[in-house]
Amino acid sequence: MDSDTRTVSDKKKKRKTNKEAQLVIRLDTEQRKRFIDACQDIDSSASRELRGFIKKFLKHYEKGEFDD
After folding, report:
1. Engineering a disulfide at 60: which of 8, 19, 43, 65 sits with its beta carbon 3.0 to 4.6 angstroms away?
2. Is the CB of residue 35 less than 8 Å from the CB of residue 27?
3. How many angstroms separate the CA atoms of 12 and 14, rounded?
4. Which tens digit of pLDDT belongs to each residue from 14-50?
């Protein structure tokens, strides 16, 4: 089956990754709304932006860039 004949469902399954864990955070309702709106404005999702932040944070952390 080539890429032109795959259904939307097939494409979604292919894109799915092995994200098995969740991180629950508590936010002020207004702050959450502003964040969601900002993500939508840049055509992204809150999850994608938070994953990106975490990746960047860990890179800095692993380089020892956070001093006490």
Report:
1. 65
2. yes
3. 5
4. 666 778 999 999 999 999 999 999 999 999 999 999 9
The interaxial angle of helices 29-41 and 46-62, nearest 10 deg, is 100
For the full predicted model, state whether its pTM sits above 0.90.
no
- Report the amino acid identity of residue 10: D
Distance CA 42, CA 52 (A): 14
Residues 6+ apart with CB under 8 A from 27: 35
Run of H or E residues at 55 = helix 46-62
Q: Which residue has the tokens 């944070």?
A: 57
Helical residues (DSSP H) of 16-45, grouped into ranges: 29-41
For residue 17, the one-letter residue type is T
For residue 38, the SS3 value is helix
